[in-house]
Amino acid sequence: MDYITVLFRTLLFYMIITIIYRFMGKREVGQLGIIDLIVSILIAELAAISIDNREESIFLSILPILLLVFIQVLLSKISVKFPKFRNAVDGVPSIIISNGKVNFKEMVKQRYNLDDLLTQLRAKKIKTIEDVDFAILENSGNLSVFTKYDPRIGEYPLALIMDGEIDYTTLKKINKTEKWLNEALKQKKVVKEEVFYAFYSKNSLYIIKK
What we know:
Blueprint lengths: L1 H23 L9 H19 L6 H23 L1 H8 L3 E5 L2 E2 L1 H6 L4 H10 L8 E6 L5 E5 L10 E5 L2 E2 L1 H6 L4 H10 L7 E7 L2 E6 L1
Antiparallel strand pairs: 1-2, 1-3, 3-4, 5-6, 5-7, 7-8
Helix pairs in contact: 1-2, 2-3, 3-4
């Protein structure tokens, strides 16, 4: 009888968790944010406890799982509407190598050491740091690399505005000021709050409205 109960609970939670993750959205495991990761761990723990503890009602585990899903969906919606909240929770990508120069201050800030950098470069079949023009540490921990011989380098855009929020780091990198950006937006008859995504490439500002 215990074996049947365990099998039943295992299959039930398998179906429930499958439905839950479909509902939570499509994201690769390596791209899970902090909130997604915490929710995933807690759901797994609650499911394991319920399968092992056959004396308690199965609904005592389903209810907190549903609450966690509700919290995750709610915070995801808040993150979409408020970029500052998303950046505070998930962080922002960090430029580790720019124009072939390693940004050691950013590496220290992100607690990302030279061994980590070399390991991820080797994983991308890059022999030395000298071959790299740009390397960006994404929120997921993955390293996006553009070599000096990469034909995309001249066209690689960095975001100036995302969800109406100016990225001052990028603005400084391209040697432009906020005044210049506001004038450029004015010429295109748009205000920054209306901008979903804007980037600078080949001496031009490209805008996608919300």
